[in-house]
Amino acid sequence: MSRHIYSIGDTVVLKDGPVRLARSNGACKVLATLPETGGSRQYRVRFESESFDRCIAETDIDTSRSKASARAMAPANTPKKENTSWLKANSVRTAK
């Protein structure tokens, strides 16, 4: 499973196509990253002129007119903090 190129909050521009409506300029905001479907990464996006969300594939995005955030472009194998659990075993109390 590969990482999404775009992150939540990024503005992306969709490719021109016969299905797109002329009233929108093609730019929309990424609201969520979704799991891959059919080998294509998916995003939930919203146009400013619309009151509903759309689900688009990454192949629908015009990469030459869209800019990914630096956070999304970071390599996947960057060192992370030490894995510590949010649950502390010593602080759990059980009834006897």
Walkthrough of the structure:
By secondary structure, the protein is mainly beta. Helix content is 4%, strand content 26%. The protein is built from 1 helix and 4 strands. It has one helix spanning 70-73, and strands spanning 11-13, 27-37, 40-46, 54-57. It has a 4-stranded antiparallel β-sheet with strand order 1-2-3-4, with no helix packed on it. The chain is elongated and about 70 Å long. The termini are far apart. The mean pLDDT is 78.
* Spatial strand arrangement across the major sheet: 1-2-3-4
Shape from CA axes? elongated
State the distance separating the first and last CA atoms.
45 Å
Our estimate of the beta-strand percent is: 25-35%
Summary tags:
single chain; 96 residues; mainly beta; 4-stranded antiparallel beta sheet; 4% helix
Give the SSE map.
Elements: E1 11-13, E2 27-37, E3 40-46, E4 54-57, H1 70-73
Antiparallel strand pairs: 1-2, 2-3, 3-4
In short:
The chain is mainly beta and 96 residues long. It contains one helix and four strands, in the order ββββα. It has a four-stranded antiparallel beta sheet with strand order 1-2-3-4, with no helix packed on it.
